Each structure stands twice: as C-alpha cells, then as structure tokens.
Amino acid sequence: MASIAEYYAGKNVLITGATGFMGKVLVEKLLRSCPEVKALYLLVRPKAGQSMQQRVSDMMTCKLFDRVREDNPDFHQKIIPISSELTQPGLAISPEDVEKLTGCIDIVFHCAATIRFDEPLKHALQLNVIATQQLLSLAKQMHHLEAFIHISTAYANCNRKHIDEVIYPPPVEPKKLIESLEWMDDGIVRDITPRLIGDRPNTYTYTKALAEFVVQQEQDKLNIAIIRPSIVGASWQEPFPGWIDNFNGPSGVFIAAGKGILRTMRANNDAVADLIPVDVVINLTLSAGWYTAVHKPKSALVYNCTTGGINPFHWGEIGRYTHHVMSSFKRNPLEQAFRRPNANITSNYLINQYWILVSHKFPALIYDLFLRLSGQKPQMMRIFNRLHKAISLLEYFSSQDWEWNSENLNMLMSQLTPEDRKTFNFDVRQLNWPEYIENYCIGTKKYVLNEDMSDIPAARQHLRKLRNIRYTFNTLLVVFIWRVFIARSQMARNIWYFVVSLCFKFLSYFRASSTLTN
Ligand SMILES: CCCCCCCCCCCCCCCCCC(=O)SCCNC(=O)CCNC(=O)[C@H](O)C(C)(C)COP(=O)(O)OP(=O)(O)OC[C@H]1O[C@@H](n2cnc3c(N)ncnc32)[C@H](O)[C@@H]1OP(=O)(O)O
Ligand SMILES: NC(=O)C1=CN([C@@H]2O[C@H](COP(=O)(O)OP(=O)(O)OC[C@H]3O[C@@H](n4cnc5c(N)ncnc54)[C@H](OP(=O)(O)O)[C@@H]3O)[C@@H](O)[C@H]2O)C=CC1
Q: Name one GO biological process term (predicted).
C-alpha cells in the first residue's frame, strides 16, 4: 500500500483557511513531507488592502517556510491562489475557477472558520455553517474527489463531559435556523442568541457543532473525515519547536503573563489543560486524508485530537505548581514588561476578584495617573478591560474537564507504516510538557512579538529595574501607612520609638565595638 507521501504525489489539493494559523502549517507540511504533490489550490480573500496574490506571497516569505525554501526554492510554483470570499454566494469563486477546481481537485481540507468566541451568531453561522455547506456542494461537483477533510473542534460538543468520536445530533436543524435568522435583524438575533446556544458557551462552539452535522449529511456522497483538535498551541517539533503566530487561546494568556500584565486568572488547577501542538494536528489531518481516500470508510470518521486521555497536563502545572510559564519568561523575558512576570491561577472567584483589584486595577490606576501627570494619554485601564473581557471568555475552558475518546486516532496510528509514523508523528505520549511549554513561551517572544533573542540581557535589566521600583514602592508604602498609623495611636508611637531606640542602641554598640577592634 502507498505511503502517505506516495499517496499525495501527483495530487491536486484544495485548502481553505490557508492564511490562518493551522492552514499555514498544513501547506508547509504538505510541501515539505510530500514534495511530489502536484499543486495546492488555496481559497484566499483580499484583506486589509492587500490582494490575495500579495497575501499568499507574503505568507510564503514567512519563517515557517524556511525549511521548504531550503529543500525547494521554487516551491511557490506549486501554490495556486484562488480568489474566494467564503461568506458570499457560491463562495465568490469565478466560473472559470469553479471549472478548474471541479476538473482537477483530488482532496479538500476545510480549515477556514471564524474562531472568535464573541462573533455575532449570523456571521458565525454564515462562515462556519453556510460556507461549509457551499464548499460541500462544490466538492460534490468535483470529478475526481477522493476525500473531504473537515476541521472541527474538540469543544463542538463541550456541553457534554464525555465526548465520543461520533457526530451528535445538532442542537437545532441547521436549515431551519438559517431560514429563520434570514429575516431577523441583527438586534433580534443578538437578543435570542443566549437562548439558542443554550448550554454552549459561545456562538463558535455552537456553529461548529452545526457544521459537523452539515458535513455528516453528505457522507453517502463523499469520503469524509472530521478532525477535532482541542486547544491548538505552538508547534512541538515541526518545522521547528515553538512556532506560533497569534494571540488566540493560551498564547495571548502566556504573553499577557510574560509582560507582567496578567497576574491572576481563574482556572481549575486540577483540570486537564488539553493543549495540542499544531504540528500534531496537521500530521493527523494529513494521515486522515490519506486513510479516507485510500480506505474509503463507509461513514464519516471523527478523530478526537486531544492530549488529556493520553498524556495529561494540568492548568496547575502551567501556573502554580512548577511555574513553567513564569520561570520561562524569567529566563527569557519579554521586552518592556509592565511588571515582573508573576501570575497565579486560582479556582476561587472571590480570591481572583481580590487579586484583580490589587494586582490589575490598582497598578493600572497608578500607571494611568502617572501617564496623565506626565502629559500622556492614559491607556493601562483600557488594556486591562480588554484583558478581562478576553479572559472571561476563556475561563469556561480552563475551569472544567472533558474526556475525549480517541479510538479512531489509535486505529489510524496502527495503520501507518513505521516510517510514516515518524514523518507524520501524532503520538503525543512522547511529548515532554515542561520542554514544550518552554519552547512555546520562547515562540511567542520570537514569532508573535517578533522580539530578538539578542535583546534578552536588556530585557533582564528592565526586569531588575522593575524589581527595584517595586521594592522602593513597597518601602514607601509601608513608611506611609506606618506614619498615618503613628499619627493616630499612642501605642503605635510607643512601638515606633522603641524600635527606633533599639536600632540606635544597636548602631552605637556596633560603632563602639568596631572602634575597640581597631
Ligand atoms: C501563566 C499562567 C496562566 C496560564 C493559564 C492559561 C489559561 C488559558 C486558557 C485558554 C483556554 C483556551 C480555550 C480555547 C478552546 C477552544 C479551542 C477552539 O476550538 S478555537 C480556537 C480558540 N479561539 C480563540 O482562542 C479565540 C479567542 N479570542 C477571541 O474570541 C477574541 O480575541 C476576544 C473576544 C477574546 C477578544 O476580542 P477583541 O478584544 O476584539 O480583540 P482581538 O482578538 O480582535 O484583538 C485585537 C488586537 O489585539 C491584539 N491582541 C490580542 N491579544 C493580545 C495580547 N494578549 N497582547 C497583545 N496584543 C493582543 C490582536 O493581535 C489584535 O491586533 P490587531 O490585529 O488589531 O493589530
Ligand atoms: N486555533 C485553535 O485553537 C483551534 C482551531 N480549530 C479549528 O481549526 C481551524 C483553523 O483554525 P485557525 O487556523 O486557528 O484559525 P485562524 O483564525 O488562524 O484562520 C482562519 C482562516 O479562515 C479564513 N477565513 C476566515 N473568514 C474567511 C472568509 N470570509 N473567506 C475566506 N477565508 C476566511 C482566514 O482567512 P483570512 O486570513 O483572510 O482572515 C484564515 O485563513 C478552524 O476550523 C478552527 O475551528 C479547532 C480547535 C482549536
């Protein structure tokens, strides 16, 4: 039987969401590990004043593609951007492009989605569900399509505690929901959203569950697989450790903690932090593509791509117990930190609120006062308000535990040749968490914030300066409180005079004894 790279040789692959975090890693891995792949057709939209060609060219200059560039400097010739806006009818693909795609595509990877937790329902539905439906319609017209791989999320069914590798009945029939939202204005949709999403925390997980159902409905006509990754983090090994390019999920939290802005967060120390490295997800996705096309399973196979049941790691280990994130940022500090990194995780609401007041709001207030007095625009309170909003949306995922079944993942691993198991490694039993978290933190510094590692001595110096400011501030605060206290209490005054006279006596004794020894 053909190995994975042999299978992809000569194939035309269609990818949505290629400019996104996971899409980029998918494109890179296909080009690097399946060098005989014929062409990658990427559905891309123009954005922020950049044409789609410009965006794809920029993407290929990214450091992520260094290894591919080394192996094959002409790799860009295999990349064919296709203009497409997924929220438009027919995905806004030109008739000529539709003809081209239907005539040549062998396999589709559907990664595009809105992953924002606060996305208005109509837009999330448009992109995550209706666009998926339209892509499936396009896929059905493709003459040689062998597999359709849909990227979902392990949290699509986060209203359940135990999640099997099955597609659960949708919370509502997607067609009915689409029809009824069509005539409603945005205000009405906003008002009824909480009722609609029910026991799910946001429109993202709700629409991803609906999308799974939409995909499942086509399982008789297409060879389908659904990949459900949990919280996708920086790369573990490939193309190099620690690659990450966004502030989503834990990355933003780590950066905020490294910058000394985030000092407290609500999470369950004993709950599993189900992080999954992006290269693992992509290796599984490509393997699933191969298996689906070659073995043509009778119904859509779902692959839960998680770490909790295989190699568990807990929120407490990231924060309080071993201070992985904190110690990493102390060794490799971020530039221009607001305070020294020192974040704590607590599951207690009141304790968290207390620390938010003392360690977030109070310093922000003082800093903004300083900015105001020095004629600058205050900004810290605004930053903290945004941080609190982001964290409140993430806490749902850091405060609970889920159990995911991974039978299909294990089955797939057993189908791989020993060589493919190495090239497309998704065996997370070998993942060393402390090392991974260290590389993750360094990755946020290097690739998200674009900071130079050679600036670390200056960043350390800045942390020392912050420590001295803190000591000075604390001393002044103690003296100030004590002075206020002394002014009001005879007993405090007596204690104060006693301590001062003791110090004075000690000093005189010390001076006398040193004179004697001289
Ligand atoms: C140490 C101890 C602590 C350890 C505990 C760690 C606990 C972590 C818990 C993580 C749980 C994650 C759960 C995820 C589970 C679901 C996984 C998936 O399926 S789906 C995948 C998961 N999906 C997600 O994770 C999506 C979640 N995110 C969201 O939904 C939204 O970002 C938002 C609603 C939170 C904020 O919306 P909004 O306020 O509108 O803000 P925007 O986003 O629009 O950003 C505006 C600008 O700010 C920039 N920037 C951002 N952060 C930072 C930062 N920290 N600094 C600096 N800058 C930052 C940003 O680049 C942007 O710049 P520009 O482009 O304008 O120049
Ligand atoms: N990141 C994570 O932790 C997890 C992600 N997932 C799933 O993985 C997939 C990829 O996620 P990730 O890479 O992190 O997401 P990103 O937000 O990084 O990427 C989203 C991609 O979708 C594209 N896209 C969004 N809207 C449109 C549109 N209207 N028309 C055309 N393209 C559009 C974006 O293009 P553009 O650059 O033009 O905006 C981008 O390429 C998603 O399906 C997500 O649900 C699942 C679990 C966890």
A: lipid biosynthetic process
Whether the Cβ atoms of residue 145 and residue 106 lie closer than 8 Å to each other: yes
Centre of ligand 2 from the C-alpha of residue 516, in Å? 78
Name the pTM for this structure. 0.91
Calculate how far, in angstroms, residue 358's C-alpha sits from the geometric centre of ligand 2. 37
One-letter amino acid identity for 254? F
- Cα 353 to Cα 82, 186, 252, 488: the distances in Å are 49, 33, 20, 31
**Greater confidence, 2 or 42?**
42
Q: Which ligand is nearest to the CA of 278?
A: 2
- Name the residue ranges covered by the structural domains of the chain: 4-237+274-310+402-413, 238-273+311-401+414-451, 457-517
Distance set, CA 191 to CA 130, 206, 377 (Å): 21, 16, 35
- Contacts (Cβ under 8 Å, ≥6 apart) of 200: 158, 159, 171, 206, 209
The 10s digit of each residue's pLDDT in 266-285 is 999 899 999 999 999 999 99
Q: State how far Cα 231 lies from the chain centre.
A: 6
- In angstroms, what is the span from residue 303 Cα to ligand 1's centroid? 25
- How many angstroms does the Cα of residue 223 sit away from the middle of ligand 2? 22
**Residue of 14, 16, 21, 253 with the most ligand 2 atoms within 8 Å of its CB, for mutation:** 21
CATH topology (fold) of 4-237+274-310+402-413: Rossmann fold (3.40.50)
Q: In angstroms, how far is the first alpha carbon of the chain from the final one?
A: 91
- For ligand 1, is residue 250 a contact (CB within 6 Å)? yes
CA separation for the pair 402, 163 (Å, rounded): 8
Q: Is 21 a pocket residue for ligand 2 (Cβ < 6 Å)?
A: yes
201 cis-preceded (ω within 30 degrees of 0): no
Q: Ligand 2 atom closest to Cα of 86?
A: 30
Burial of 403 (C-beta count, 10 Å sphere; 0-12/13-18/19+)? middle
The beta strands (E) that lie in 360-475 are given as: 403-404
Ligand 2, atom 24, lies closest to the CA of 112
d(C-alpha 239, C-alpha 173), whole Å: 41
* Tens digit of each residue's pLDDT (9 = 90 or more) over 400-458: 999 999 999 999 999 999 999 999 999 999 999 999 999 999 999 999 999 999 889 99
pLDDT digit string (tens) for 306-324?
999 999 999 888 865 556 7
With the most atoms of ligand 1 within 8 angstroms of its CB, the residue from 386, 392, 450, 451 to mutate is: 386
Q: What are all long-range contacts of 247-256, with beta carbons under 8 Å and residues at least 24 apart? A: 247/448, 248/21, 248/115, 249/394, 249/397, 250/275, 250/440, 251/440, 251/444, 251/448, 252/390, 253/391, 253/394, 254/325, 254/329, 254/440, 254/441, 254/444, 255/334, 255/444, 255/448, 255/449, 256/387
For residue 282, which amino acid is it? I
Which helix (H) or strand (E) element contains residue 179? Answer: helix 174-182
DSSP class of residue 6?
Answer: H
ipTM above 0.90, yes or no: yes
